[in-house]
Design brief:
This protein has 12 helices and 16 strands. The chain has about 350 residues and is an alpha/beta fold. The strands form 3 sheets. Strands 2, 3, 4, 5, 10, 14, 15 and 16 form an 8-stranded mixed β-sheet that branches. Strands 1, 6, 7, 8 and 9 form a 5-stranded antiparallel β-sheet that branches. It has a 3-stranded antiparallel β-sheet with strand order 12-11-13. About 45% of the residues are buried. Bound molecules: S-adenosyl-L-homocysteine.
Length: about 350
């Protein structure tokens, strides 16, 4: 049993099962606070770690918007959950030749993990770090990027039992954690269409994700700018249990070894759109569609033409993984938000 597991087991024995959201929040804090989870030796690989082309194209997406917004003299470029800083390093390099962009822009990272902050500083030394999105300065337009950030925020789950709807809790017994329905009826919280859903139906709510989206929407409306949110998920409403654990590049039991696996939930993009009002929303579109419209094939071909045969093969394989329907291309979606009088972003026709 992990130290976190022992603490949670004691707490559950003393005061009863805890909400899935509490369990997820504690596990994620322990998990991200204690390691670099990315890459081959870690637990999972993200798009910027697959190919430099991902961050480069997002850089051009940013520069194009900034130019069409009239090249404001001051810009706050924000990334939520920057991982190893790879996306921002690729983005920053790609926009170096856009006149005035570097000079106008300061980079802000919202990151809680000290380990990952160190990795980010090695790649993007000029960044300024913040614990929360609320701490970003409010004096200039924002361009905000978040890749695989929202899936790492805790969700609440509700389950339909024979006796009606209950919050889904985490219980402990016989040396292991497991999901169990809580004691309090919550039918009054459920939409009418789901009241009579079959027993076993699960519904998820992401209040933490909603709060971040609301802050982004309010900032964009007040400061101007745009956001690009990329993650795996769906356009809700939907039912189903999407809580999953990933460890050493495979799926694991979310209730085994608390704090030792990456716990995620699929992102409800409709909920993010709604939470981000008054910002204007575009999408979600699939990652494949977005990257195609941003010119991933031409960019890959141009890089491959200048590369060694081995490097060219890696570049093509990376692009295939980013856009492939059976890889990341269709499960991953992109949502764009704009505020102020910023124009429609590229890639969201
Ligand atoms: N965007 C990166 C990393 C994705 S992993 C990439 O695509 O490679 C999730 C990232 O979000 C990590 O950097 C993690 O430390 C950070 N993170 C998770 N929960 C967070 C929170 N509540 N506040 C700030 N950062 C968080």
């Amino acid at each position: 049993m992990t130290p976190l597991g022992e603490r949670l087991a004691r707490e559950i024995a003393a005061t009863g099962p805890i909400p899935v959201a509490r369990y997820m929040a504690d596990c994620l804090a322990q998990y991200y606070g204690s390691r670099d989870p990315l890459g081959r030796g870690g637990d999972f690989v993200t798009a910027p770690e697959v190919s430099q082309v991902f961050g480069e194209l997002i850089g051009l997406w940013c520069a194009d918007l900034w130019l069409r917004a009239g090249s404001p003299a001051k810009l706050r470029l924000v990334e939520l959950g920057p991982g190893r800083g790879t996306l921002m390093a690729d983005l920053w390099r790609a926009v170096a030749r856009v006149p005035g962009f570097h000079a106008a822009t300061s980079v802000h990272f919202v990151e809680t993990s000290p380990t990952l902050r160190r990795a980010q500083a090695a790649q993007v030394p000029q960044a300024v770090w913040h614990d929360r999105i609320d701490d970003i300065p409010d004096d200039a337009p924002l361009l905000l990027v978040a890749n695989e950030f929202f899936d790492a925020l805790p969700i609440r789950q509700f389950v339909r039992t024979e006796a009606g709807w209950r919050e889904r809790m985490v219980a402990f017994g016989d040396g292991r954690f497991f999901a169990a329905a809580g004691p309090v009826p919550v039918d009054a919280l459920m939409p009418p269409s789901l009241i009579a859903a079959p027993p076993g139906t699960v519904v998820e709510l992401a209040p933490a994700a909603g709060a971040v989206a609301a802050e982004i929407g309010a900032r964009l409306a007040a400061q101007g700018g745009a956001a690009l949110i990329v993650d795996y998920g769906y356009a809700g409403p939907a039912t189903g249990d999407t809580l999953q654990a990933v460890r050493a590049h495979g799926f694991a039991d979310p209730f085994a070894d608390p704090g030792e696996a990456d716990l995620t939930a699929h992102v409800d993009f409709t909920a993010l759109r709604v939470a981000a009002r008054p910002a204007t929303a575009f999408g979600p579109v699939t990652q494949a569609a977005l990257l195609a419209m941003l010119g991933i094939e031409a960019r890959t071909a141009a890089l491959a033409a200048r590369a060694t045969p081995d490097q060219a093969a890696l570049l093509r394989a990376g692009t295939a993984r980013l856009v492939g329907g059976d890889a990341m291309g269709s499960l991953f979606k992109a949502l764009a938000l704009t505020g102020g009088d910023w124009p429609q972003p590229a890639g969201f026709a």
